[in-house]
Amino acid sequence: MADWPYNTRIWKRLRLAKLASDPGCYACELRGRFVPAVAVDHVKAIKAGGEPFPPLDGLMSLCERCHNEKTNAVDRPDRASTGRRFKGFDVNGNPIDPGDAWHGGGA
């Protein structure tokens, strides 16, 4: 977490505020499970034009597993990936990734 903006006081406060408001992992909750979040991730990556310090709804609270999966699938174009932000399905059998074609492909 050494790269800007993650080493700033502003980010550290924003991260704590997000974890306080959404203490569970976003993706795991979509799967019907509560897993405590330990990471805060940008909904729209800074490299893709996202704001470094967005409002709280521009951030996601994630567990370590989901954060690593999302980072490897979306934020690392140098690696072969599916481009799918989150793997798995909700309790109704629908894909949880908001970018899935089932949801209209937008997220």
From TrEMBL:
It comes from the Bacteria. Residues 74-107 are annotated as: Disordered. Residues 25-72 form the HNH domain. The keyword Ligase does not apply. This is HNH endonuclease. The lineage of its organism: Bacteria, Pseudomonadati, Pseudomonadota, Alphaproteobacteria, Hyphomicrobiales. The keyword Nuclease applies. Gene3D superfamilies: 1.10.30.50. One of its GO terms (molecular function) is zinc ion binding. InterPro entries: HNH. It comes from Nitratireductor basaltis. Pfam families: HNH (PF01844). Keywords: Endonuclease, Hydrolase, Nuclease.
